[in-house]
Design a protein that fits this description.
454 residues; ABC transporter involved in vitamin B12 uptake, BtuC; two-stranded antiparallel ribbon; two-stranded antiparallel sheet; globular
Length: 454
C-alpha cells in the first residue's frame, strides 16, 4: 500500500465520528508507546504509561460528556462539578465500606453493603443534591448560576472536612433491619480509607469472569512481567472498563440529544424565551437536565476515585472542575464526539503529557540534583549552564502544567472558541425535510448550526 493510499484511508476514516475517535486514540497510544520504547522504558513501564493514559482519558471523557449535557445541550453554566463528584464518592464509601472492627483503629467504617448498592446510592445522592441546588438556582441565569454551583462545591468540601461529621454512632437496628455498622462518618480532614472491593473485581465476580481473569494475570506474569504483574494488569483492565463506561455515557447522551426531550434542551440553549413562548415548561426541562447531569458526575467521581486506597477532602478542590471545562472546550460544547476527543486530548497532552516528558528525560539522562529555587536556576543560566534550569523545570512540572493549560485555553478562546467539533451541522427536525432528488442542487436536509452532526 502506498503512502497516498494510506493517507486517503485515514482521511475517509476520520470523516465519521467513530473513525475520528479511533484515529485520535490511536495517535495518542502510538505516541506514548513509541516514546517509552525509544527512551528505554521496560515493558512494565510502557504498559504502566498506557494504563495511566487510559485511566485519565476515561475519566475526563466521561465527565466532559456529563458537563456537555449541562452546558452543550442546555446552556447551564455549572462550575460545581467536583462537589457532585465528592458526594457520589463519599456516599458510596459510607454504604460499601466494611464496619469498623471492635477495638480497631479510629478510622470510621461503613454499612458493609455490596459495592453495587453503594454505587447506586452515590449516584442517587448526587442527583438528589443536584435537585436541591437546581430548585432555587435554575431561576438564575449565566454568572449567577455559576456562583451558586461553585459555592455549593466549596460547601461540600468544607463539610467533608468538618469535625462534626467526622464520625457518629448509628443505632443497631433501623425499621427492624439489623445494621452491621456502629460508627460511620465522613472522616474529617483525614478522609476515608476505601477498603471495599474494587469495581473491576466486583464486576468480574458478578460476570463469573474472576477466575479466568486471574489466569490471564498469571499468563502475563509468566511471559511478560515476571515481578508482581497484577497491579499493572489491574490498572490497564480498569482503564478499559472506564472506556466502556464512556461508551455508555456517549450512547445515553446521543439518545437524549436525538429525542424530543433533547431537542427542547437545545432550544433552551439557543433561546429560552422562545422555547417558553412555544409552550415548553423550560424550568422543568432544565431541572431534569441538571439532575441527570449531576447523577452522571457523581458516577464519574465514584469511578475516578474507587481505584484509590483512600480519599481526602483536598481531592475535590475546584481545579478538577476547571480541568473538565478545559476538556469540553477543547472538543467543542454541544458535540458528544468532541467531548470524548477533548477528554482524550486533555488527558494525553495537557494532564499526563508533561509528567510523561519528565519521566522520559529522567530515564534518558542522569541529571542529578537540581536547584531548590527559581533564583538559583536563573543564576546558573547566567553562566550559560542550562542543566540546573532544566532540572528545576522538571521538578516543578505540576506547576508548569497549569501554566501550559492556561496558555492553551487562552489560545483556544482567541482562535477557536467553538472547539474542535463545536457548531457542527445538525438536522433541525426529526424527519427528513429535504426536497425530492433533483429539485435543488444540494439535496440536503434542513439543518441548523450547533450540536452533534447526525
Amino acid at each position: 500500500m502506498s503512502a497516498s493510499d494510506l493517507t486517503d484511508r485515514l482521511g475517509s476514516l476520520s470523516d465519521s465520528d467513530l473513525g475520528l475517535v479511533l484515529v485520535v486514540f490511536g495517535a495518542l497510544y502510538l505516541a506514548y508507546a513509541l516514546a517509552g520504547v525509544i527512551f528505554g522504558f521496560a515493558f512494565r513501564g510502557v504498559v504502566n504509561s498506557l494504563a495511566n493514559l487510559t485511566f485519565y482519558v476515561g475519566v475526563f471523557a466521561m465527565l466532559a460528556l456529563a458537563l456537555n449535557l449541562h452546558w452543550g445541550y442546555t446552556g447551564l453554566f455549572n462550575i460545581g462539578i467536583v462537589g457532585f463528584m465528592g458526594i457520589g464518592v463519599y456516599v458510596t464509601a459510607i454504604v460499601a465500606k466494611p464496619p469498623v472492627a471492635q477495638g480497631g483503629a479510629a478510622q470510621v467504617g461503613g454499612f458493609g453493603l455490596p459495592l453495587g448498592v453503594g454505587v447506586v446510592a452515590g449516584v442517587l445522592a448526587a442527583a438528589l443534591f443536584g435537585l436541591l441546588v437546581a430548585l432555587p438556582a435554575l431561576r438564575l441565569r449565566a454568572d449567577y448560576l455559576a456562583i451558586v454551583t461553585i459555592a455549593f462545591s466549596e460547601i461540600v468540601r468544607f463539610s467533608l472536612m468538618s469535625r462534626t461529621l467526622q464520625s457518629f454512632e448509628v443505632p443497631d437496628t433501623v425499621l427492624g433491619v439489623d445494621l452491621a455498622a456502629d460508627t460511620v462518618g465522613l472522616g474529617g480532614g483525614g478522609g476515608l480509607i476505601l477498603n471495599y472491593t474494587s469495581p473491576l473485581e466486583a464486576l468480574l465476580r458478578t460476570l463469573l469472569l474472576w477466575d479466568p481473569y486471574l489466569g490471564f494475570v498469571n499468563f502475563v506474569g509468566n511471559n511478560f512481567i515476571p515481578s508482581n504483574p497484577k497491579p499493572v494488569v489491574d490498572s490497564m483492565a480498569y482503564g478499559l472498563l472506564l472506556l466502556a463506561v464512556v461508551g455508555l455515557f456517549y450512547w445515553l447522551l446521543k439518545w437524549t440529544g436525538e429525542s424530543p426531550f433533547g431537542r427542547v434542551l437545545k432550544a433552551i440553549r439557543e433561546d429560552e424565551d422562545v422555547a417558553n413562548a412555544l409552550g415548553k415548561d423550560t424550568n422543568r426541562f432544565k431541572l431534569i437536565s441538571f439532575v441527570l447531569g449531576c447523577a452522571l458526575m457523581g458516577l464519574g467521581g465514584i469511578l475516578w476515585y474507587a481505584g484509590r486506597g483512600s480519599i481526602t477532602p483536598p481531592s475535590f478542590r475546584p481545579n478538577i472542575t476547571f480541568y473538565i471545562w478545559i476538556a469540553l472546550i477543547i472538543g467543542g460544547a454541544g458535540s458528544n464526539t468532541g467531548s470524548v476527543l477533548g477528554g482524550a486530548l486533555f488527558a494525553g497532552a495537557l494532564y499526563e503529557g508533561p509528567r510523561l516528558v519528565k519521566n522520559l528525560v529522567e530515564a534518558a539522562f542522569d541529571l542529578g540534583e537540581g536547584p531548590g529555587t527559581f533564583g538559583q536556576a536563573m543564576a546558573a543560566m547566567g553562566s550559560f549552564d542550562p542543566v540546573p534550569f532544566v532540572i528545576y523545570t522538571l521538578n516543578s512540572i505540576s506547576q508548569l502544567r497549569l501554566v501550559i493549560m492556561g496558555l492553551v485555553l487562552i489560545w483556544l478562546m482567541h482562535n477557536r472558541p467553538e472547539g474542535l467539533l463545536g457548531h457542527r451541522k445538525e438536522t433541525a427536525a426529526s424527519i427528513d425535510l429535504s426536497r425530492p432528488a433533483g429539485s435543488e442542487p444540494s439535496g440536503d436536509a434542513a439543518a441548523a448550526d450547533g450540536g452533534e452532526q447526525q
